[in-house]
Amino acid sequence: MAKNTHTYESIFADIKAGQFSPVYVLMGDEPFFIDQITDLLINSVVEESARDFNQLILYGADTDAATILNAARRFPMMSNHQLIVVREAQLIRDLELLTNYIKNPLQSTVLVLNYKYKTLDRRKQLAGAVEKVGVLFESQKIPDYKLPTFITGFLQQKNKDIDPKASQMLSDFIGSDLSRLVKELEKLAILLSDKGSKRITPELVEQNIGISKEYNNFELVKAIATKDVLKANRIANYFAQNPKNNPLQMTLPVLFNYFTNLFICYYLKDKSDNGLMAALGLRNVFFVKDYSLGLRNYSAMKVFRTISSIRETDAKSKGVGNVSVSDSELLKELVYKILH
Q1: Is the pLDDT of residue 80 over 60?
Q2: What phi, psi does 21 have (nearest 5°)?
């Protein structure tokens, strides 16, 4: 069942509906989506009682194209399909030799190639053949600013909701490690079920994930947007006292993302809430307020200089032009530069 465009959601929906493609090439920088799709195929294509005969897991370092072809051309035993999963397929040197088979694959075989952290060369025949008869899916990293949207969507699948502040706290604290993020979300969802509730609150995150609802990157951005000098310095001092949970390398990307987005806002014709939401890819008007305040409190030139200061601080934190200043002092210095 070939399509021109495959999304993670559409692939999941097809598999759950029992509509399998004969070939899946799952490639790209984000392993989470590759693993999720592969796991769903493993649990869906072949019934558990028939997996000993009809399910094969291979590893790129230990196999080659000939072995894969021999397995793929076999017919299933007492089952409608056989499943062949090749993990670490990027390590197979002669992978292009699969092209002729993929042009005319056995419909009873579901062949899955995990091609993590790399992408197939779309100029070569193999990629084109996969696109015509199967699924060629590129799993891409989720930008930090889209993490709250991912969190909301994931929880909606579990019939749960999340407070926007709680969502931002989680995305700022955990970042784009989706496997870890999902584990924390699943833990919170279980806690909600135990409490008979459906909405994750900042308090629940604070109590169970170890993030302070008052002293976190979300609140730091808010304090900076409003030019609340006292609150911003309190948060910077808290980070200095709790460096393990609040490392500088987690804070700098959040500040960089905020000010680069703010810089974009200056060049928008439509600076209404809806205009800002559309331009920045925000799903909730809750997040627009910080940008509206930033537009009032910072000039375009100040934002430009702040972005430069954040980059400079990042370089210093990695030892460039700095041998003695601690991360906590670097953050305090940066906050001062931003607010003055």
Answers
A1: yes
A2: -90, 150
Say if residues 248 and 330 touch (Cβ distance below 8 Å): yes
Q: Which runs of E-coded beta strand occur in the chain?
A: 23-28, 55-59, 82-87, 109-116, 135-139, 161-162, 199-200
Average of per-residue pLDDT values in the chain? 91
- Residue 3: pLDDT band with limits 50, 70, 90: very low
Domains, the chain? 8-139 (3.40.50.300), 142-213 (1.10.8.60), 226-340 (no CATH)
Residue 147 token pair: 């993490």
d(CA 303, CA 262): 7
CB-count burial class (<10 Å; 0-12, 13-18, 19+) for 171: buried
What pTM did the predictor assign? Answer: 0.72
* Residue 96: HSE in the Cβ half-sphere, 13 Å Cα cutoff: 7
